[in-house]
Amino acid sequence: MPLTILAIESSCDDTSAAVVSDGYILSNLIAGQEIHRSYGGVVPELASRAHQANIVPVAHQALKKAGADISDINAVAFTRGPGLLGSLLVGTSFAKGFALAREIPLIEVNHLQAHVLVHFILRRGEEERVPRFPFLCLLVSGGHTRIILLKSHLEMEMLGNTIDDAAGEAFDKCGKVMGFGYPAGPGIDKLASLGDPKAFSFSKPSVKGLNFSFSGLKTSFLYFLRDRLKEDSEFIEKYKADLCASLQHTIVNILVSKLIRASEETGVREIGIAGGVSANSGLRKAVKDEAEKHGWNLFIPELSYTTDNAAMIGITGYYKYLKGQFAAHDIVPLARL
Ligand code: KG4
Ligand code: ZN
């Protein structure tokens, strides 16, 4: 009998449910929340309320799309954290209720570990196309920028982290000043393809080891715009594509140079990228170029698995199930995990 897991993700502003069977994804539904766009960022209370409204229909649709009956589900996996507490509470409570009613195991999942484990989702006919261990993964999202060494499915070591802002935050905050809605990353990416990446240069951080910093870049970008706008109030509109291309080029450069260093220091050439920012076309191209140069066995996630999704929670839940790692029903979500 297949092992079929219902997975729930509700850590930030996407309500997602997936059905994962023996490591294959049968469905992966995501309900985004447009409401935050006009606020320039995620409003926690609005996010919790939207999750509350969406969770039951999204889970129902995920089961339907997978062709699964409630009685086919052997376990429920949910995101325990990190994330917004009110958002996490909705998914946690739903998962507990489902597990209790069906008398099936409950599995808690760390959202960051899940982003990395997307690379272990199985595809029919391509079962061999998964990373070997040790696996080095650059995890870049709106809340995190880390270099993670995966020693086995469930054993992670953090080799580098941001000391201030995350890469996605740099995209979003700089984008906000240029007039983009939230999140700004996808819009910047699109416009960057029309601009010159060398048009402007912004200060790059010098941070020790494999750590990152993005707050200096953000400030340098803001001051640069402030000065130019004094001379020409239309500066942003005139040079928007060049600004996007140059900003993206700088961020990608910072990320990729640390990834190269991590590979050199560890000797690991099984390399991947993950998280929302791994959707960025500049980053995807840059790591492909480096993979050719350095002989990396490279893993780039499908676009639907880059931003927050329940498929990644389901695949992590699958490996935890195989190890018998279940959660008790008094478990609570943690904003910082
Ligand atoms: O992983 P994710 O969905 O949520 C977090 O866990 O943070 O990542 C969201 C982040 C946002 O900062 C968004 O601007 C960024 O990913 N992002 C992108 C692109 N698509 C999403 N950044 C740059 N280029 C993109 N194409
Ligand atoms: Zn995420």
Textual characterization of the structure:
This protein is of the alpha/beta class and 337 residues long. The protein has two domains: 4-127 and 308-322, ATPase, nucleotide binding domain (Nucleotidyltransferase, domain 5, 2-Layer Sandwich), CATH 3.30.420.40; 135-305, 2-Layer Sandwich (Nucleotidyltransferase, domain 5), CATH 3.30.420.40. Helices cover 42% and strands 18% of the residues. It has helices spanning 44-66, 85-102, 111-117, 167-177, 185-192, 215-231, 235-266, 281-294, 310-322, and strands spanning 4-9, 15-21, 24-31, 75-81, 106-110, 135-140, 145-152, 155-161, 270-274, 297-299. Strand 4, helix 2 and strand 5 (106-110) form a beta-alpha-beta unit. The longest helix is centred in the last third of the chain and has 32 residues, at 235-266. The mean pLDDT is 96. 5'-O-[(R)-(carboxyoxy)(hydroxy)phosphoryl]adenosine (KG4) binds at residues 12, 141-143, 168, 171-172, 183-186, 189, 275-277, 279-280, 307-308. 5'-O-[(R)-(carboxyoxy)(hydroxy)phosphoryl]adenosine binds at residues 12, 141-143, 168, 171-172, 183-186, 189, 275-277, 279-280, 307-308.
